[in-house]
């Protein structure tokens, strides 16, 4: 009984410790290595890895898997080779949590999160918000000519004047599912499928990389696209691209980008410490200012770039419903709707 009570008291104390103290409390017991499967850019992963190693002495090995992330983690379920899955939308984590792939891991900052940004059983946490918005090249279209809504994107007048990412992009996959779910809610599932068919008909090309995607808009190969808000702002600021963001009537498709500890991973203590670090206020502020990643901890927004402090209207999307149908919907989009002949 005493052991049980002491354990509860220690857990309660840990929840109120700053991240440095929380990690330091477990530091003597950490393994010397942690393995991370991720979809995030390597420059960003390097910053996070260096910071974690500096605090703990634990070496971070990260493998960037892009569109293969979930498949790799699932394939290794019986003999996990990685400790952390880092990146991808909440719908994917909801689905994989039901498959018993993630380990319940309590963090000090988890209780602060909006319930929509985490698993109620502490198996995954949202650590970044990723709004997907419509944008256009304002040298090709005036504000009057540009689309005002997601519904406008299927107007025949925009045929061959829209480009987007292909199946490899996790934000593209989540956007397709979000749009199908939304139009299924406001009308019927059949109407949602018809929307995607008409959007495909208006799409000139699907790009396999983000850089090629934005270069095509910058080179005026098409005027209109949709993508991650932070990437649009990066290209506006760093590459001086003439991009204009649309405040769509339906709202932005806002993805919750998550992280989780993989169950039965090879370095469980180091994995728990990495999770504590990755979602901490310190790291969320760091990523917001270095890489334009919007935090899920609301209390740190005043330390982030100004655009993050402007509220973004959210499209009402049911990510729980998407998690139930995601694989089926994506297969339909990729094999029956999308014209793969337009892949670049």
Commentary on this structure:
Helix content is 42%, strand content 17%. It has 344 residues and is of the alpha/beta class. The chain folds into 2 domains: 2-129 and 256-304, Periplasmic binding protein-like II (D-Maltodextrin-Binding Protein, domain 2), CATH 3.40.190; 131-254 and 311-342, D-Maltodextrin-Binding Protein, domain 2, CATH 3.40.190.10. Strand 1 (33-38), helix 3 (42-56) and strand 2 (59-64) form a beta-alpha-beta unit. Helix 2 runs antiparallel to helix 10. The longest helix has 19 residues, at 319-337. The protein is globular. The chain starts with a helix and ends in a 7-residue tail after the last helix. The model is unreliable at 1-17 (pLDDT under 50).
Keywords summarizing the entry:
344 residues; alpha/beta; D-Maltodextrin-Binding Protein, domain 2; 2 domains; two-stranded parallel sheet
Helix fraction bin: 40-55%
Q: How many helical stretches?
A: 12
Question: Any idea how many domains?
Answer: 2
The radius of gyration over CA amounts to 21 Å
Question: Quick one: CATH class of the largest domain?
Answer: Alpha Beta
CATH-derived topology of the largest domain: D-Maltodextrin-Binding Protein, domain 2
Quick description:
This protein is an alpha/beta fold and 344 residues long.
Summarize the SSE layout with pairings.
Layout: H1 2-14, H2 19-26, E1 33-38, H3 42-56, E2 59-64, H4 69-75, E3 84-89, H5 90-98, E4 125-137, E5 162-165, H6 170-186, H7 189-202, E6 203-207, H8 210-218, E7 224-228, H9 229-238, E8 243-246, E9 253-261, H10 268-278, H11 281-291, H12 319-337
Parallel strand pairs: 1-2, 1-3, 5-6
Antiparallel strand pairs: 3-9, 4-7, 4-8, 4-9
Helix pairs in contact: 2-10, 5-12, 6-7, 6-12
């Amino acid at each position: 009984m005493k052991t049980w009570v002491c354990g509860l008291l220690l857990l309660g104390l840990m929840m109120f410790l700053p991240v440095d103290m929380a990690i330091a409390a477990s530091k003597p017991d950490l393994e010397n290595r942690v393995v991370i499967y991720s979809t995030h850019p390597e420059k960003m992963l390097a910053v996070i890895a260096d910071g974690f190693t500096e605090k703990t002495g634990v070496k971070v090995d990260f493998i960037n898997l892009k569109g293969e992330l979930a498949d790799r983690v699932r394939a290794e379920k019986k003999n996990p080779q990685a400790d952390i899955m880092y990146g991808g939308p909440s719908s994917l984590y909801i689905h994989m949590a039901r498959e018993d792939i993630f380990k319940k891991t309590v963090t000090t900052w988890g209780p602060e999160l909006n319930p929509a940004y985490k698993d109620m059983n502490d198996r995954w946490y949202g650590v970044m918000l990723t709004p997907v918005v419509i944008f256009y090249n304002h040298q090709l279209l005036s504000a009057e000519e540009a689309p005002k809504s997601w519904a406008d994107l299927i107007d025949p007048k925009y045929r061959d004047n829209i480009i987007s990412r292909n199946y490899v992009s996790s934000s593209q996959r989540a956007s397709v599912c979000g749009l199908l779910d939304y139009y299924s809610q406001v009308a019927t599932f059949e109407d949602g499928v018809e929307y995607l068919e008409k959007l495909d008909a208006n799409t000139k090309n699907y790009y396999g990389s983000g850089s090629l995607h934005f270069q095509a808009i910058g080179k005026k190969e098409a005027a209109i696209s949709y993508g991650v808000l932070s990437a649009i702002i990066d290209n506006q600021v760093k590459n001086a691209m003439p991009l204009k963001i649309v405040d769509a009537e339906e709202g932005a498709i806002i993805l919750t980008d998550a992280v989780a500890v993989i169950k039965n991973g090879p370095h469980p203590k180091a994995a728990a410490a990495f999770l504590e670090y990755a979602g901490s206020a310190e790291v969320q502020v760091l990523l917001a200012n270095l890489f334009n990643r919007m935090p899920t901890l609301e209390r740190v927004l005043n330390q982030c770039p100004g655009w993050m402090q402007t509220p973004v209207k959210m499209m009402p999307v049911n990510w729980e419903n998407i998690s139930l149908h995601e694989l089926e919907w994506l297969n339909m989009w990729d094999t029956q709707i999308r014209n793969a002949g337009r892949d670049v």
